[in-house]
């Protein structure tokens, strides 16, 4: 049986039906980054500026296992981006999905990572204004994560690199919350368990503290935003977070 791979180019379907997956760079895509599991390209999809995320094989893994893991992460990423979008949690729009090449063609967010933004603000000379902006930003991050959890989505890899901030006049910071976009849902899954929600927050806390010096107060604002979303819905998760932290400290101390 011949595999049919449909490439979203302007070529006629007879030409697009190919036995092998076409290298994106040969279609004019520009490689932006290569992570542990996927490559990210910038690509013009019939004139539409987009990002293509393509999962690649890990040669050290058993091939069948690798294919299974790739397919699962690809599927979870699509499913949970869609779920978030349905519930008005900001994520890129999905334009096209290819389940054979494991490629996701999505909206290109014109902006920077929250990681870079925090670093810029921490170096700013107007520290009062920067603090105010960072407080608003962190409150909103917390609120949106609570909303994601309330809708059953666990991100699985929350870091300040996996949240983007759209380019805008951030100096007029009243709408900073509207500029956030969550990406990288490859490790996401669906769960309503407080344990899973608490671990999701703990992963973000570790990322904050290891990436940004003196960020304890910023993370406190994330927690405040999370709690403010709905005290009744978030209370159990936040008390579980204390237990998860304790476990984390014991693990660090005793291995
Ligand atoms: N929709 C998007 N718009 C703009 N930039 C994006 C978008 N999606 C991803 N990127 C950029 O590509 C980078 C890698 O994307 P992503 O985190 O989804 O892939 P990844 O390979 O899983 O990364 P890593 O292994 O480093 O976690 C992001 O840090 C971001 O800079």
TrEMBL record:
GO annotation terms (biological process): tRNA processing; tRNA threonylcarbamoyladenosine metabolic process
Record's keyword terms, sorted: ATP-binding, Hydrolase, Kinase, Nucleotide-binding, Nucleus, Phosphoprotein, Serine/threonine-protein kinase, Transferase, tRNA processing
Main location: nucleus
Location within or outside the cell: Nucleus
Entry's EC annotation: 2.7.11.1
PANTHER family: EKC_KEOPS COMPLEX SUBUNIT TP53RK, NON-SPECIFIC SERINE/THREONINE PROTEIN KINASE
Recorded family membership: Belongs to the protein kinase superfamily. BUD32 family.
Name listed for the protein in its UniProt record: non-specific serine/threonine protein kinase
Source species of the chain: Heterostelium pallidum (strain ATCC 26659 / Pp 5 / PN500) (Cellular slime mold)
Species lineage: Eukaryota, Amoebozoa, Evosea, Eumycetozoa, Dictyostelia
